[in-house]
Write a structure and sequence with these properties.
With about 625 residues, the protein is of the alpha+beta class. It has three domains: about 50-170 and about 215-340 and about 595-620, 3-Layer(aba) Sandwich (Rossmann fold), CATH 3.40.50.1110; about 180-215, no CATH class; about 380-560, Sandwich (Jelly Rolls). The protein contains 18 helices and 24 strands. The strands form five sheets. The chain has a seven-stranded mixed sheet, sandwiched between helices. Helix 6 (about 140-150) runs parallel beside helix 18 and helix 11 packs parallel to helix 12. The protein starts with 7 loop residues before the first helix and ends with a helix.
Amino acid sequence: MTIKPLSRSFLLLWFNVLTTCASVIAQAPLDTRELTPEPGAVSTKKPLKVFILAGQSNMEGHAEVRTFDYIGKDPTTAPLLREMRNPDGTPRVCDQVWMSYLTGPYDGSANDEGLGKLTTGFGARGDRPTEDGGKIGPEFTFGIFMEKELQEPILIIKTAWGGRSLNTEFRPPSAGPYQLPQQIQEQWDKHPQGAHGIPKLEERKKWQADKAAASGVFYRMMVEHVKKVLADPARVCPAYDPEQGYELAGFVWFQGFNDLVDGQTYPNGNYEEYSRLMAHFIRDVRQDLAAPQMPFVIGVLGVGGESDNLNFREAMAAPASLPEFQGNVIAVETAPFWDRVIEAAEPRQREYNEIVGTAHALNRDGTLDTQRKWDKYWRPIGKPVPAERNWRFVTVAATDAQDKLAEYTDRRFRDINLPDGLEEWYKPEFDDSQWTKGPAPIGKGVWNHSGINLDQFPSTWGDGEFLLMRSTFEVDNLDYDSYRLAILARQGFHVYLNGHKIHTYIWWLDKPQYRSIVLEREQTQHLKLGKNVLAIYANDQYSADSPEHYAALDAWIEGITRADQERFDLALEEVFSPADREALEGASNGGYHYFGSAKIFAQIGKAFAEANHKLLSNRSR
């Protein structure tokens, strides 16, 4: 069969038809429901990049947001601060980075998950794992810079608990059971009856059983949580596309302090066992997560700076040099980010903290020190003045089985089920007329610490472990620049102002003085002209060696004017140079947490991101 060519007239006819159709389509309105993504939606044709961050307290992150300003004081890090903040100074929220953060108390007994877009607050959270902790760890700038490099949706799964070692709690399965080093075992064998630091023969069986029970517990928690998130990524990350799936694009490990100081596992500073465990850890997480070539970043502990802990740092980094890990594991030194300026000022940190952290001091006999020069700038809010106020109070005991403590612990603060009728005890309208009436401090027993003997109290606490107390004061002036809570307490407490909780402290603190707790706008908004009600819930304390309970509790709110704040700052210069004070304002924790400095943690997170991106680039070649 012969196919005839189309005639020229026929081709012209079809050309005109197609041209007309194109013109009609071009003039027709577009269906934006099909072609335009909804506001805020992110689409991608790539697998979702998933990064896992894990470790102990430095991975949690103890840098308070208030230390951000210090980053901008240094020209080399000022550009980093601009990445961390919006133009108006508020912390950045990453539009394409989502977080799942598993954490909880050190023992992992109350783990929970924090969720949301990456911003500040995903640092250490203590016993409130779902709540913004006001801190950052490496995750903040890690996510910021990974988002900047990849320009696509990212999911970060972070699991971190303070005080956990690689040799025990994070012990990888393939490393085998924990065994005492031969040198330590020989010492134990020579002292069957025990000695300093060596358990008796009959105690060793329990020690070994406890060690076995603790081994790998947090490793398993970590892996189980990662698998849980990956079973349904859309639960955490709404940008997840099931058709594209996800890619395990990196694992960052930042840990080490508990191993660094464990002389029993690593006698004489020999940390070769850490290197062995780290290599097993990398292999095991890759196997357990079915990601044999997952990029792995070892964050090398750098507390103390580049001249400290050399043996340990070398042992941490050593696995990256193994042939099997070439090109897919990298060790990142964090020691270069150690801040020598903060370190130089840090010896004076305690004195600085005593001044700014103490609202009022006590004399040796427990009476209020009225001569302390630092107190005169702050003024009590409301009348009558604190010394003339009466409190209404009642003591209660834990009666429900789940509220009682089976044995002594110094972290005894907890919420209990209160007796019927006390459910709304902290609200202003609550009728406390049948409670005991008296001035504060309200106390019991003898609080003897730091050379101060506190054993005489205007009002007696009573027998109950827990105290509920309420006080009313009238306010006629709120012309202050800032406010603080001045509180005397041995154990944890909740504080309520006009029915709103304004502060919680959950641990013990053996400092017989009135602490200064600066209140933010979200707390002071509940302070008002006229009648105000301050309410406090707290518990007493006792030691493991003595059954005698002791306690003391008192509190009030104070304010400082802008003029007095300037006078206070000027007076501080008699003790601290402006440079020292600036440095200390850039720190919020101990040296083992890199001073709780956002400047240090921000640089660490950025370095982790750069290393992980390098490994990803190597893999794509």
